[in-house]
Design goal:
Layout (H helix, E strand, L loop, with lengths): L1 H14 L13 E6 L4 H20 L7 E6 H6 L2 H5 L5 E3 L7 H9 L5 E3 L21 E5 L1 E2 L10 H5 L3 E2 L2 H13 L4 E5 L22 H10 L5 E5 L9 H8 L6 E3 L7 H6 L6 H12 L6 E8 L6 H14 L3 E6 L17 H24 L5 E9 L6 E6 L4 E5 L8 E9 L3 E6 L6
Parallel strand pairs: 1-2, 2-3, 3-4, 5-8, 8-9, 10-11, 11-12, 15-17
Antiparallel strand pairs: 6-7, 13-14, 13-16, 14-15, 16-17
Helix pairs in contact: 8-9, 12-13
This protein binds 5'-deoxyadenosine and iron/sulfur cluster (SF4).
Length: 439
C-alpha cells in the first residue's frame, strides 16, 4: 500500500510539472512516505530526516530542500511533528496524496508549516502513470483503502480512516489499460480486499458471485490479465465463493494471504478480531478442500498483552494444523491510541523474543516440508531479473507467490516461463527452465 501511495504521489507531481530525482542531495523537495504499524518503522523516518538535513547543510548547495512527511506517521502525529522536528516544512495526511503539488506550492510561496490531514475529495484520481510504477510487469491496483475492523492492537483504522471502495468500472478499466501496456500481473490491494463494497454495482452487472469482492475477481479475470493476485484477506469476510472464483478462473493466482494473528481464542477476543480459531479453520478447510492446490500464508503477533504460555502453545498448535506456505511473525508493538495500549500484563521483551524464535523454528521446519513437496513439479514463473546470487540464474515469482530461481540466460524479464523444480531452499525454490516455454 505504501509503494502504491508513493507511485500515486509521483504521478501527481509529474503531472504538475515536477521532475523526480532518486537522490536526496539533488532534490529541492524531499518527501518521506511513512509507516506506523510498528514502533520501529515509525522511528526510522526521524533518523532519515536528520540524515537528509545534515547532508544538505554540508553539501554546499544553496538553499535547504523543503522537507515533507506523508503517510501514516504524518496523519497520526499531525502538527506535533513541526514542534519535534523543526526541519519539517510540510505534513501530508494519508488522504491528501492528490493535493501534494498545491501543498508544495504553498510552502515554496513562503507559507510556514503547511499541513493537510483532510479526507479525499470528489473526483480525485487513483490512477497511476506507468512511468512511476516500480515494475513494468507487475502493478499494484488499490481496490479499497482504510479499515473498519478496529483490531485492538492496530493503528491502521486511525491512520487510514474508514473503508472506501473504488468503483469496479474504474478498477476493470485500469487493469485493461495495464494489460495493453504489457503488464503481466496485477495485485489487487487493500487493508482488507474481501471487505470490498463499492457504492454502486456499476461494472459488476455481468458477473455473478456471493459478494461484491468475488464478483470483482471474476470481472478482473475477464480482462484477460495473465496473473491476478490479491492481498490482504480478512478471515471474517472470507466467503468460500472466493475459492469458487479461483477454481473457475485460471488467471486468478493460487495464493491466499489470510492473517490469523493468534491461535488462542482468549487472545483473539482481546484482539477484537471478530473470529475464533474454529471460524478461521473453517476458512482454511474451504481453501484446502479446493480442487486447486492453493498456497496459504498468514501473519501472527506474539506477545500480545496477557498472552500466557498456554495461549502461545495454542498458536503453535494452530500453525501446525494450517501448514502455511509462509508466515510473517511480529512481536507485539504497543501503539499509542489503540485499545490494547491500555492493557496491563505486558509480556516481557525476552519472552516475546523466545516465542518469536520458537514459532519461527516451527514454521521453518513445516515450510521445509512444503517446499520439498514442490520438487519434481512444474511452476509458472514471471521472470523479474537476474538473480543477485549468480549471474547465470534468473529470479521471479510463481503464481503461488514463491521466489523461484532457475538456470537460464536466455530468458528476459517480463517473460512467463515454466520451471521444473529440482531443489527446495529455505525461502525459495530452484529449478530448470522447461524446453517448451509457456505463454
Ligand atoms: N504490533 C505488532 N504487529 C502488528 N501488526 C499490526 N499491528 C501490530 C502491532 N501493534 C501486524 C499484523 C498485521 C501486519 C500487517 O502487521 O500481524 O497483519
Ligand atoms: Fe489492522 Fe485489523 Fe484492520 Fe488489519 S483488519 S488493518 S489488523 S484493524
Amino acid at each position: 500500500m505504501n509503494v502504491a501511495d508513493t507511485e500515486r504521489a509521483a504521478t501527481g507531481l509529474r503531472n504538475a510539472g515536477y521532475e523526480l530525482t532518486a537522490s536526496a542531495e539533488a532534490a529541492d523537495v524531499v518527501l518521506f512516505n511513512t509507516c506506523s504499524v510498528r514502533e520501529r518503522a515509525e522511528q526510522k523516518v526521524f533518523t532519515r530526516i536528520g540524515e537528509v538535513r545534515h547532508q544538505a547543510q554540508h553539501s554546499g548547495k544553496r538553499g535547504k530542500p523543503l522537507i515533507g512527511v506523508m503517510g501514516c506517521v504524518a496523519q497520526l502525529e499531525g502538527d506535533a511533528i513541526f514542534q519535534n522536528t523543526p526541519a519539517v516544512d510540510l505534513i501530508i495526511g494519508t488522504r491528501a496524496t492528490d493535493r501534494i503539488p498545491s501543498l508544495i506550492e504553498r510552502a515554496r510561496g513562503g507559507e510556514a508549516d503547511v499541513i493537510d490531514l483532510g479526507e479525499r475529495q470528489e473526483g480525485e484520481f487513483w490512477e497511476v502513470s506507468p512511468a512511476e510504477r516500480r515494475s513494468p510487469y507487475v502493478a499494484f491496483v488499490p481496490i479499497i483503502e482504510g479499515c473498519n475492523k478496529f483490531c485492538s492492537f492496530c493503528i491502521v483504522p486511525y491512520s487510514r480512516g474508514r473503508e472506501k471502495s473504488r468503483s469496479a468500472l474504474e478498477i476493470v478499466a485500469e487493469v485493461q489499460r495495464l494489460r495493453s501496456f504489457g503488464y503481466k500481473e496485477v495485485h489487487l490491494i487493500g487493508q482488507n480486499v474481501n471487505s470490498y463494497r463499492p457504492l454502486s454495482p456499476e461494472g459488476l452487472e455481468r458477473y455473478a458471485g456471493a459478494t461484491a469482492f468475488s464478483r470483482l475477481l471474476r470481472a478482473v479475470a475477464d480482462t484477460g490479465m495473465q496473473r491476478i493476485k490479491f492481498t490482504t484477506s480478512f478471515p471474517r469476510d472470507f466467503h468460500p465463493d472466493i475459492v469458487a472464483a479461483l477454481e473457475e478462473c485460471p488467471n486468478l493466482c493460487d495464493w491466499i494471504h489470510l492473517p490469523v494473528q493468534s491461535g488462542s481464542n482468549r487472545i483473539l477476543k482481546a484482539m477484537r478480531r471478530g473470529h475464533s480459531t474454529d471460524d478461521y479453520l473453517r476458512r482454511v478447510d474451504a481453501i484446502r478442500g479446493s480442487k486447486r492446490r492453493l498456497s496459504l500464508t498468514s501473519d501472527i503477533i506474539v506477545g500480545f498483552p496477557g498472552e500466557s504460555e498456554d495461549d502461545f502453545e495454542d498458536t503453535m498448535r494452530l500453525v501446525r494444523a494450517c501448514e502455511y506456505d509462509g508466515l510473517f511473525i511480529f512481536k507485539y508493538s504497543k501503539r499509542t491510541g489503540t485499545p490494547a495500549a491500555m492493557l496491563a500484563d505486558a509480556v516481557p521483551e525476552g519472552e516475546k523474543t523466545a516465542r518469536f524464535l520458537a514459532l519461527e523454528e516451527l514454521q521453518s521446519s513445516l515450510q521445509n516440508k512444503i517446499y520439498n513437496d514442490y520438487t519434481g513439479r512444474t511452476v509458472s514463473v514471471l521472470v523479474e531479473r537476474e538473480s543477485a546470487r549468480s549471474s547465470e540464474d534468473m529470479t521471479g515469482h510463481s503464481t503461488c507467490h514463491k521466489v523461484v530461481n532457475f538456470r537460464s540466460q536466455q530468458t528476459a524479464p517480463g517473460e512467463i516461463v515454466d520451471v521444473l523444480i529440482s531443489q527446495a531452499k529455505p525461502y525459495s525454490l530452484y529449478g530448470e527452465l522447461m524446453s517448451g516455454r509457456a505463454a
